[in-house]
Here is the input.
Amino acid sequence: QTAKNDTVKAKKSSPAYRIQIGYGQLFRSGDYLVTSPYNSIKAGMTVEFPIKKGFGVESGLIYSYDFGKRNQLYAHYDTAFFNYHGHFLDVPVRLTYSFPTLWGIKIFLYGGLNVNIGLAQSEKRTFDVNPTDTTPTNALDYPVTGKYNLYNSDLNRFNLQLGTGGGVQWKKYRIRSGYDWGLNNVSKSSTYPQKIKGWNIAFEYEF
Here is the structure.
């Protein structure tokens, strides 16, 4: 009987491994910057280590492909067009809490840090000058048409975020959603700081 109880206890306290796929939007915002979303397609794996009384610690590795576009209006109706793509890795470290409800459904909550690491990020810029604007002037520098590696010119790769969220679980299936706030300046310029924040939703399967 004792050996059986030890086996059940060990099974309940074993880590939970999950794969996930999801979607989200990131917003790179700051002074003199148009706030526009990056559409984010995510896929990866997480592992949750139970502590006790419904609490646990979650981590993992999640890859995301982000893309989007925006327009920025300058003086005299001159317009710049930006088209961007990026590849990122997320490493979350979060405290979790879950509790059972009716019909075998569990509610879970989480909160903690997320380390977002930029692998590659490029931006295609096109500057369209109004034909009537023969001598364009603006408080900010005008963009130069071309394709740019943003980690060489504009941004840092490291983005530390603080996030919270939750979801529901039924058997081995989970739906989760959350929001992350950027904590550090990702811009190479200290004069015009930028931070990255965003929301996400994902489907998970536990195996």
Residues 118 and 157 are 5 Å apart (CA to CA). The helical segments are 2-12, 150-153. The chain has a mean pLDDT of 87.
